[in-house]
Amino acid sequence: MRPEEPSSPPPPLAAVLLAALALCVLLTAPPGHPDSSGVPAEGGDDGMGHLLGAAAAEDEVPYTAVGTVSFPGARQERALHVVSRPGEGVAIAPLGSREPAFVMRESPEALDGRLLRVLADTYAVVYAGPGELEGRPVHRVDALRADGTRAGRFLVDAGTGLLVGRAVYDGSGRPFSVSRLSGVRVGAADWPEHAAGGEPWGDTLSPDEREELREGGWYLPEHLAWNLRLVDARSTRLDGARVVHAVYSDGLSQVSVFLQRGKLESEHPSALGDESTGTGAGGDGITTEHDTIFGGGTGQYRNVWESGGFVYTVLADAPTGLVSSAVTALPEPGAFGFWARVQRGLSRWGIG
Amino acid sequence: MGHLGERLSALVDGELGPVEHERALIHLAGCETCRFEADMLRRLKRRLTTLGEPEPDHDFLGRLSGLAGGGTSGRPPGPPPGGAGFGMSPPLGSSRPLGGHPPTGPFAAEAVADASPAAPVAPPPADRPVRRRADRFTSLLPAFPGGRYAVAGVAVATALLGSAFVAGGGDDDTPVVEPRIADFALEHALTVRQLPFGEEPPAETVTGAAPSETEQTR
Question: How far, rounded to the nearest angstrom, does the alpha carbon of residue A135 sit from its chain's CA centroid?
């Protein structure tokens, strides 16, 4: 005869409640990041000195140069006339064009320092030895991933200390974007008249303000992915409504996420034109992977969708994998169902 | 002797002693006013006695009886100990008169009739199962030791999800917006220090070939 097994003691009530709560969180949590296995690269970052020096030279050395920016994947390249005046900003204009220059005035909250810190945290910034660019000696600095592949390369002019070359590589090692300065002439140059442009939105959001927005339901995480950190957050009012601009970066590329309360029209926003894909109510017209919607063919990414009472607009000039990671980490399009509403309620409580 | 006054009510209720009772009756024989008042009081008392009572709900009575009996003692349903069940008490006005003296005199027959208890309410049918509500709920629980905790957990989770669902509402007034892509592109360009989106490169600068790095290692 089989002995009677003793009855197991009833599970504690607290354990059952915790299990129920965990189940709720799991059911309502956003999908995991596909690159969550990525880790920051370890290294001595012996190349950071050259990059810090280049950032300092940008604030001290006036110069004129011809800049070229190319997106090899898009087989396009543009040439720009560049005038830099420390204290006033940088004016750029398409070479050979009569269009007014575009001026980017310096902002007290320049991203250089923060971007370099993020770069060092994400990649191993190593000095790759001396080189030569158009006959001028340069220092080469590489940003390496944890597996040793190259994610970025910087060329620092050995004479002026200016950053004269920069390249970003995708996960397969192919160059995504390449920019360089040629014909660099140090010294003050004529500042273009009738220049357009300006400064970024002036309302920089402090950590407390960001936290307050999060409590109000705004999706504004400090990290979108292990290699995408919030480096800047600003706010302004357009059409009487608040718009938040969150900038995420891995130190090499930047992804801009614009958030605003509301929902899209049922038709595609006219501002998107024909070169991009927008979404209608409920997220129609967008893939869940978010990696197929590029605009313009210039390597620049733009995407608009709505989710949970917010409209998200993503603009980026970054490799596909990085942008996909960012967009996937954001709330899914068309999250209007029961679980989306539950998740929104939990987030308003500060859970999940 | 004046009118009976308050003793008239005591007379009708049979609360007077034998001597007082006889005196009151003698007075009534010669006093038209008191006799009329006594007659009115008697009619009123009879009316109150014969008022119809609401029919008690048998199911409710059975559940009350089950609660009083504990449900598991096996005692048949019946009035709870220490008192009659609902609807089983004597009708209003039929209580035994104070003093307990049997009525005598002209009102004796009526008084006896008025004092008779109302017919008892029939108890619930014996074949009708009377169960406690808690017993019914318990029978639904799963037959494992942690069933109560599981039910409690499910209840808490349901309450949590419901509350979160309510807290996550409020989108009915969501405004329709159209992102101002041009402004966003300018802001992005100013932040990342690149040409804004939409600035297409001049046609003559499109080379169609990917540039190669020109630096050379010394």
Answer: 34
CATH 3.40.50.720, domain A201-349, yes or no: no
Does the distance separating the beta carbons of A263 and B179 come in below 8 Å? no
| pLDDT interval class at A279 (50, 70, 90) | very low
Residues from chain B that touch A338, judged by Cβ atoms under 8 A, are: 165
Structural domain boundaries enclosing B137: 133-159
Same domain, yes or no: B48 and B149: no
Q: The tokens of B9 are what?
A: 């009510």
The residue to which tokens 């034998």 are assigned: B18
Q: How far is A57 from chain B (nearest CA, A)?
A: 16
Beta-carbon contacts of residue A236 (< 8 Å; ≥ 6 apart) = A201, A202, A203, A242, A243, A245
Record: contact B195-A269, CB cut-off 8 A: no
pTM metric for this prediction:
0.57
Report d(CA A67, CA A183) in Å as an integer.
Answer: 9
Query: Which residue on chain B is closest to A180 by alpha carbon?
Result: B213
Class of A48-198 per CATH?
mainly beta
- Total domain count, chain B: 2
User: pLDDT tens digit string along B18-75?
Assistant: 888 888 888 888 888 888 888 888 888 877 776 655 565 666 666 666 665 544 444 4
pLDDT tens by residue, A80-131:
888 888 888 888 888 877 777 778 876 555 567 888 999 999 999 999 999 9
* CA distance to partner chain B, nearest, from residue A262 (Å): 5
Same domain, B73 and B108: yes
Spell A314-344 as b/e; 16+ CB within 10 A means b.
Answer: bbbbbbbbbbbbbbbbbbbbbbbeebbbbbb
Please tell me whether the interface predicted TM-score (ipTM) of this complex is above 0.85.
Answer: no
Residue range A151-169: average pLDDT?
93
Where does the pLDDT of residue B135 fall: very low under 50, low under 70, confident under 90, or very high at 90 and above?
Answer: low
Residues of A in contact with B205 (CB under 8 A): 77-79, 94-96
Task: Report how many Cβ contacts below 8 Å link chain A to chain B.
Answer: 241
* CA dihedral sign of residues A7, A12, A15, A17: positive
* B198 part of a folded domain: no
Question: Nearest chain B Cα to A90, which residue?
Answer: B193
Residues B79, B140, single domain; the answer is: no
